[in-house]
Amino acid sequence: MYRTSRKTFSSTAFRRTAAAWPSPGQVVANPKLILADEPTGNLDSKNGREVMDLLSELNREGTTIIMVTHSQHDAGFAHRTIHLFDGKVVEESPEF
Questions:
Q1: Which one, of 34, 32, 20, 22, lies nearest residue 71 by Cα?
Q2: CA–CA gap between residue 19 and residue 60 (Å, rounded)
Q3: pTM for the complete prediction?
Q4: Per-residue model confidence as pLDDT tens for the chain (96 residues)
């Protein structure tokens, strides 16, 4: 079970998000940085929202989140976005 501030994942929620989230041994208390590669890619919308809410909460608490996604919806959670095409930056939002 993951614990972050007052929120916890149940074992069922953990199993659903296992593909998008590291194993318990890879999460440390109060991480400064999380690299999230398609964090909702294999999830249904309800569980995807839970993952994005958790990442948002961690960010509000001071964790930097670097996320790679093809989802415009998930990108909408970001304070800053960088769009790549063929490995080159084609668009960048202003820094937060």
A1: 20
A2: 24
A3: 0.68
A4: 444 444 555 555 555 555 455 554 455 577 899 999 999 998 999 999 999 999 999 999 999 999 999 999 999 999 999 999 999 999 998 876
